[in-house]
Every structure is written in C-alpha cells, then in structure tokens.
Task: inverse folding
C-alpha cells in the first residue's frame, strides 16, 4: 500500500539579516521525511523553534522547500493543480485566523468560490452540510467571528478546511489555545471527521497527552531535524532518543498528583548554540553525548518501524 | 505513594497554624458596559498561608485573573469593586490609599503576568528594569543595586548575569524573559507572590524549569503563592491547595491530592474527566461537558452549573447553593447541594478504563 502523503528529505532555510555579517541563511528544517497513510493521524511534536510550523507551511505548499520532494497519492506536488483543495490547513487561534469583517457564511464560501465553479444553491448546500458536520447550526452562518466562542471559532475553521473535501488536513496547534473542556470537544470532532470522511491529519502540537489520545504515529522534531518517529504507543512508552525521554519527563501528569516534574537541565533550546559542522543537533544538551556524536549527523536507524536518529539509542529489553 | 505522602505531610505542616497570610472575603467585581452592570466575580473567598501554594483554576472568563487584579488593587474603570475585603498580613489592602498601595505592592506582595514579552518594557534594558524596582522600594546606592540585580539574575538560573543585565527583552527567549519577570517579582523578598498563568506561553521543557524555580524559591523564602492557571496537570504538580472557579464563583476549594482523588463538585469532576492523560485510551472519545459556560451578563438564578450538570435536581434551578465547608475533611469546601461522594463519584470509572 502506498502512502497518501509522502514527504522525502525536505529542507528549508531562511535568510536572516544581521547587522555585522549581512545576510546569512539559517537552516530551519533539514532532511525531514515521513509518510502519512489515509485515515491516520500523524502528530508532530517539538518545542517552539523546532520547525513544526515551517514543516506545516511546506506541506500545504504555502512555501517551496529548498530541496526534497513531496507526493500526494503518488503524484508529485508540482503536478497537482488543485493541491490547495486537497491539502488544507487549520491555524492555532481562530480569533486571528478568521477575517473579522466577514460573516461565517462568507468565510465558508471563500474556498468554494476560489476553487470550484458551483451555483449559489450548490454552495449553500455544501456550506450547511459542513456546518452540520462540525456540530453547528445554520443560524451560525450569519454571525461574525467575534460573536463566536473559542470552541465555535475553531469549529468554523474546521468547517472551512473540510468544505472542499480535502484528503489531508494540517492542524497547526489547533487545540492549544482552548480550555480543557472545549479542547475535549474539538479532539472528539477531529476523530469523528477522520472516521466519517476518511481524511488524514498532520497534527502539530506541543502537548504530549493530546498526542496520546488521537495520533497513530508521532514525529519528534528538534532544531529542524527528526529525532524519532514511530507508533505512538512505542514512542511514548519506550522512547529511544534522549531528547524524547526528556520531553516526556517534562510533562506534568494528573495521573499521579504530587509527582513533581523535574527540570532536567537549566538551558532551553533557544539558548543553545547549535553545533557547527556535522554533529548531532542535540549534542549540547544530551547527557549521553560523547566524541562520536560530535563527528557526524546521526543517521536515521530503523528499529522495527521505530525510527531514531541517535548513536546511543538502545532498545530497552 | 511516597510522593503522595510527602505532599500530604507538606500540606499538613503548612496548614497547621493558620493565621492566614492572605484572606480574600466576599470579593465581588462588576464591569459596566452599555449602561448595564455585569458581574465578573461574585463573592469570592479564599485564603493562603505562608509557604503554601494555592492554585486558582477555571476556564477563561471564570474570573481567576480579575480576582488577582482586585487583590493587587489593579481594577480600573469600567471595573468596580462592589464589595469584599482583602486582608494581607492583618492589613486591609482595599483600604489603602493609592500612594500607600504603591509603596506596599511590589515589596510585600508582587505579581507575575502571563506574557513576559508584553509585560517587560521593550525600551529599557533588563538591568534598568530590575534596578527600578530596587530603587523604588529599597534604600540602596547604585553599586548595591547593581550587585543585588546580579544576585537576583543568578538566583533565577540565568548563567551569565553580567551580560544578561545589558540585554534587551527582545534579545531573550520567552523562558528567559519569564525568569527576568520572576527576578523582578522576588527582588524585595515578597511574602506573597501572585503568578497569573506564568507558564502558559512556554514550552513544556521550559515550563518544567520555571515550576522548579518557583518551587525552590518558595521553599527558601517561605513565600506564599497564588498560582493562577487553567492547566490541571500543572496544578497537580505545584499546588498544595486548589480553588476551582466557575462563572465568577468559587465552586470548590480543597487540598490538591483530595481534589484529584475525589472531586466533590460535578464541574470539577467533569473537568478532570475531559483531560487527556498519559493513560487515556487510544482513540477513545474524550469526555466533554455539554453546553458552554454562561456568558457574562446572562447569569441566571440557581446554580450556575445547572444546565450542564449531570446530577442536577429540581431545586438546583431555583436556589443558589452556598460554598459550604466540609466538616469531616479538613479545610474542604464545595458549592453544591449534592456534593459527590465515593458512591456517586465517577472518577473511579475513569481509572478502571485506563487499567483495562
């Protein structure tokens, strides 16, 4: 079976201007590859600055990667004219991503007008159908975004994403700004939409407990490089990469109240200077690092569908 | 278990002799809008002892931050402090004149805000901002202030204090800025620190560091702390005691371990059930609370959680329940006519599910 979405070794760097040295390029993503099967959810986790959102922008083709290829349904991205209909995106904050001057109806009408040649009544039908799918009533169509609550706003953003019948939805921190009770509703909705419409999700988040509930596979990014990828259960229960272990330790859990999370080190990712030349990106913070780690970028090893880029990775017995 | 018992013992040692450091009583705050008066916070009661962390949790709009602002005397028009009393160290904070309050706040009582990037002034260096607090409250000369600032920066775990003082807020990351905020807040050794969502905007790894830092500072200075958050997992991690707010009221107030083991208010129970946890079943639907919280201004009679409550009975719609102390358990209060007991509590189901 071929994967629905295939991303092969994409890299992206941005030009950064500095007063002293003029423009320099800074590599944000390097050699990221993954496959997403239809009807599955792939979660991308990492700290801020790890390149999660940059990855999202490449996948929805808002930007062109410097190198690497992407395929949807076996066809390369460049040969798909209606890509923006088939790969859609949901942003973090509905209050910021929905145009405040437009009514819900107009917001949902936008993608249909842009991509499809439909009559007014056909558009109406689709709009009301997608509102129903996300659990809203037809009356909401005449409202403005400021009249909606956070949860309703995120539902509209979702309706806007599913209205063109996409195959892949990229959700960039789609539940991070919501309260717990609303977050639960939206996560349920994502699972329902996946089951009813069979679409795949690239779910970007920093919340590990959310990953555990909805995702099938998880990809851990650090400084734009893939650290670890594998089935959720395997990665969360027996992480192989020291960074993943640290990330999991930092998550406070309610399962064991009174358990104090321990801050493992004092530095945070953004304070680190990344190693120069080929070396492991996690070198400076890694407790296990030795001289070999400073000599090469660790290759991706495949241990039973569980990929890890670490020279020190050992499968626990 | 050892962890739990350590929290328990800390809990009881903290609460043994409660001359409360902070006592908030019947605090109500209204906001005027379009000629109408909208109640944001309604007769809120809670207290905190020295060395104790009290977490205030609730959804957005539940009045957590407004209560904190009222304690600090920061409610401005169109907000009105309708009634209430805030006693801190035996002093009535609300009776202070603004001149007295300026002298008092920041010294004995200080606050950390949610977004470090917006609460630091972008046009002053870190050093200038930290020494400004010292200039106002402490009688120190320039060199002493500078040294004190270096100590503070060191204390919050920034590795190169000399360099840090010369930097500007935009040159530091979110976690570093938050550390600077904490350094400013603790610069005069306050006996109470109010932290309003101090880790919400931060990554989990940075969050773990900040929680660690706050905990160790608290133990060192025996500081009381009001920790406002909407994240229950953070609460379980840092708090001795939890105050749960819903639609402007306190609905439950109880020690942390008891809250997580046996919530008494249906809202608290529902909140805990809707949390995705490490043990959540894969692909199992999460529990979600039906309906949405009442909007400000449309507060009805009866229990405010009535329409969303699974256990509601007829009288819940008509009469408003009061916050009642549980006499059996120590220092536990709940605002419900039918508080959940072991028999009715569905949390057990949750744990059964996760074991299955």
Result:
């Amino acid at each position: 079976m071929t994967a629905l979405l295939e991303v092969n070794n994409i890299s992206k760097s941005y030009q950064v201007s500095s007063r002293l040295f003029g423009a320099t390029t800074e590599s944000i993503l390097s050699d990221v590859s993954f496959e997403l099967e239809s009807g599955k959810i792939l979660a991308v986790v990492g700290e801020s600055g790890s390149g999660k959102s940059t990855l999202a922008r490449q996948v929805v083709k808002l930007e062109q990667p410097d190198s690497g290829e992407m395929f949807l349904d076996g066809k390369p991205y460049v040969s798909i004219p209606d890509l923006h209909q088939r790969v859609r995106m949901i942003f973090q904050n509905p209050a910021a991503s929905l145009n405040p001057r437009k009514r819900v109806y107009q917001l949902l009408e936008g993608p249909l007008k842009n991509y499809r040649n439909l009559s007014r009544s056909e558009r109406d039908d689709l709009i009301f159908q997608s509102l129903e799918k996300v659990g809203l009533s037809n009356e909401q169509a005449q409202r403005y975004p400021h009249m909606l609550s956070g949860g309703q706003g995120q539902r509209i953003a979702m309706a806007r994403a599913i209205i063109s019948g996409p195959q892949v939805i990229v959700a960039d921190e789609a539940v991070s700004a919501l309260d717990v009770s609303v977050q639960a509703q939206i996560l349920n909705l994502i699972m329902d939409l996946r089951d009813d419409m069979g679409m795949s999700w690239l779910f970007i988040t920093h919340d590990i407990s959310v990953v555990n509930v909805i995702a099938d596979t998880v990809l851990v990014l650090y400084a734009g490089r893939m650290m670890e990828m594998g089935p959720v259960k395997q990665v969360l229960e027996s992480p192989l990469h020291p960074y993943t272990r640290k990330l999991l330790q930092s998550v406070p859990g309610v399962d064991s109240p009174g358990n104090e999370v321990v801050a493992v080190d004092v530095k945070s990712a953004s304070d680190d200077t990344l190693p120069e030349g080929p070396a492991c990106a996690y070198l400076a913070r890694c407790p296990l690092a030795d001289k070999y780690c400073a000599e090469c970028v660790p290759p991706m090893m495949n241990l039973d569908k569980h990929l890890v880029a670490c020279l020190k990775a050992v499968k626990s017995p | 278990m050892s962890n739990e018992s350590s929290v328990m013992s800390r809990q009881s040692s903290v609460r043994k002799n409660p001359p409360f450091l902070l006592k908030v009583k019947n605090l109500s705050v209204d906001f005027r809008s379009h000629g109408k008066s909208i109640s944001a916070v309604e007769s809120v009661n809670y207290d905190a002892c020295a060395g104790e962390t009290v977490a205030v949790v609730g959804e957005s709009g539940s009045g957590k931050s407004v209560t904190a602002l009222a304690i600090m005397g920061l409610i401005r028009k169109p907000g009105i402090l309708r009634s209430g009393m805030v006693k801190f160290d035996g002093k009535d904070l609300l009776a202070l004149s603004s001149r007295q309050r300026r002298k008092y706040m920041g010294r004995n009582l200080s606050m950390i805000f949610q977004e470090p990037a917006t609460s630091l002034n972008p046009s002053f260096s870190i050093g200038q901002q930290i020494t400004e607090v010292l200039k106002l409250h402490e009688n120190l000369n320039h060199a002493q202030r500078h040294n004190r600032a270096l100590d503070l920066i060191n204390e919050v775990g920034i590795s190169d204090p000399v360099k840090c003082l010369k930097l500007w807020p935009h040159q530091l990351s979110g976690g570093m800025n938050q550390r600077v905020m904490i350094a400013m807040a603790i610069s005069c050794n306050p006996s109470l620190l109010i932290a309003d969502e101090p880790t919400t905007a931060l990554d989990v790894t940075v969050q773990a560091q900040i929680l660690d830092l706050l905990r160790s500072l608290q133990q060192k200075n025996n500081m009381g702390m009001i920790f406002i958050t909407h994240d229950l997992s953070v609460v379980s991690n840092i708090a001795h005691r939890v105050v749960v707010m819903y639609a402007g009221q306190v609905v439950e107030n109880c020690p942390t371990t008891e809250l997580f083991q046996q919530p008494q208010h249906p809202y608290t129970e529902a909140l805990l059930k809707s949390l995705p946890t490490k043990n959540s079943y894969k692909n199992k639907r999460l529990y979600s609370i039906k309906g949405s919280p009442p909007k400000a201004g449309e507060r009805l009679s009866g229990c405010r959680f009535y329409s969303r409550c699974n256990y509601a009975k007829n009288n819940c719609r008509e009469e408003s329940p009061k916050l009642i102390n549980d006499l059996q358990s120590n220092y536990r209060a709940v605002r419900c006519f039918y508080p959940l007991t072991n028999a009715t509590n569905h949390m057990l189901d949750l744990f059964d599910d996760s074991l299955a």
Remarks:
- Residues 265-271 of chain A have pLDDT under 50 and may be disordered.
- The longest strand of chain A covers residues 22-36.
